[in-house]
């Protein structure tokens, strides 16, 4: 019933957004996040993702996205349209060819570089370069990329506001989120901005970001279909997996990559540990 209401509210919202009017005709249309359309109507919902049955024909035929784990917090996301995105790019864990897009965070030098490969067309910092929070709303090929800022620890037990970004990649009908170097639990405003996630990349270091219990609460609230651990340093991966009960499946991959589409998303949330994590 809750999901039915969510779809109904989302349809009303989209109808209003695109209904012809003078204001809409005069202004250039802004990019609309399909990942936010449902979650904003029900801000406290903990399960606001589409199933394959809810996918439109166009979305379902959009193709597969390949996600490869390169190391630390760096994944390579390859879209059906040929765009490649490296997350938390630091110049050390490089794909075979320069990515089209590189996102970065600055909690540690292992999450960014100030001298990226000049062949990278688009570099997105997760922190503001002008004293203001980073605000990204970018379309690159068939990928729409946006961010939600969070705070990071900054010495002497102080917090730097908006020092980290959760990047969301919307491609082939999928909503893919990378938590970056998340240092605190999220509040309702963060969840509203993030919206639904189908794929979630989550740090599982057990303390450099957040403890396993705190991180598990974030994962449970976001309720993505496919959860990809990363940034594992210190405790074994089971310390993170043990935080989840039978309502989550767990599996160890035999490869460093996974192909995913709206139709192939697991019906039950799956924590999938790629090789190398």
Describe the secondary structure blueprint for this structure.
Elements: H1 2-18, H2 22-26, H3 36-39, H4 57-60, E1 65-71, E2 74-78, E3 84-86, E4 101-104, E5 122-125, E6 137-140, E7 143-153, E8 159-171, E9 174-178, H5 188-194, E10 199-203, H6 212-222, E11 226-230, H7 238-241, E12 249-252, E13 257-260, E14 270-273
Parallel strand pairs: 3-4, 4-5, 9-10, 10-11, 11-14, 12-14
Antiparallel strand pairs: 1-2, 1-13, 2-3, 6-7, 7-8, 8-9
Number of domains: 1
The CATH class turns out to be Alpha Beta
Structure classification: alpha/beta
Q: Output the CATH homologous superfamily.
A: Ribonuclease Z/Hydroxyacylglutathione hydrolase-like
Give the number of helices: 7
* Span of the ends, CA to CA: 38 Å
Account of the 3D structure:
The chain is α/β, with parallel strands linked by helices and 277 residues long. Helix content is 19%, strand content 28%. It has helices at residues 2-18, 22-26, 36-39, 57-60, 188-194, 212-222, 238-241; strands at residues 65-71, 74-78, 84-86, 101-104, 122-125, 137-140, 143-153, 159-171, 174-178, 199-203, 226-230, 249-252, 257-260, 270-273. The protein has an eight-stranded mixed sheet.
Jot down its keywords:
277 residues, alpha/beta, Metallo-beta-lactamase, Chain A, eight-stranded mixed sheet, six-stranded mixed sheet, 7 helices, 14 strands, 19% helix, disordered N terminus
Offer a concise description of the structure:
By secondary structure, the chain is α/β, with parallel strands linked by helices. Helix content is 19%, strand content 28%. It is globular.
């Amino acid at each position: 019933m809750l999901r039915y209401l969510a779809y109904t509210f989302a349809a009303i919202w989209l109808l209003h957004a695109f209904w012809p009017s003078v204001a809409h005709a005069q202004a250039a249309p802004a990019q609309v996040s399909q990942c936010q359309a449902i979650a904003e109507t029900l801000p406290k919902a903990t399960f606001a993702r589409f199933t394959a049955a809810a996918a439109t024909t166009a979305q379902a035929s959009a193709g597969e996205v390949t996600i490869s784990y390169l190391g630390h917090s760096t994944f390579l996301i390859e879209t059906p349209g040929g765009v490649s995105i490296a997350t938390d790019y630091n110049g050390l864990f490089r794909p075979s060819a320069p990515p089209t897009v590189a996102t970065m965070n600055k909690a540690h030098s292992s999450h960014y570089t100030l001298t990226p490969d000049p062949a990278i067309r688009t570099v997105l910092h997760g922190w503001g370069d002008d004293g203001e929070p980073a605000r990204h709303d970018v379309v690159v090929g068939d990928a729409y990329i946006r961010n939600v800022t969070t705070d990071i620890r900054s010495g002497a037990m102080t917090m730097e506001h908006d020092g980290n970004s959760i990047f969301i990649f919307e491609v082939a009908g999928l909503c893919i989120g990378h938590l970056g170097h998340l240092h605190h639990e999220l509040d309702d405003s963060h969840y509203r901005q993030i919206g639904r996630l189908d794929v979630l990349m989550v740090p599982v270091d057990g303390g450099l970001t957040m403890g396993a219990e705190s991180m598990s609460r974030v994962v449970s609230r976001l309720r993505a279909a496919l959860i990809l651990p990363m940034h594992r340093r210190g405790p074994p991966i089971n310390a993170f997996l043990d935080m989840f009960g039978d309502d989550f499946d767990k599996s160890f991959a035999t490869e460093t990559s996974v192909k995913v589409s709206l139709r192939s998303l697991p019906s039950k949330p799956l924590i999938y540990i790629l090789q190398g994590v």
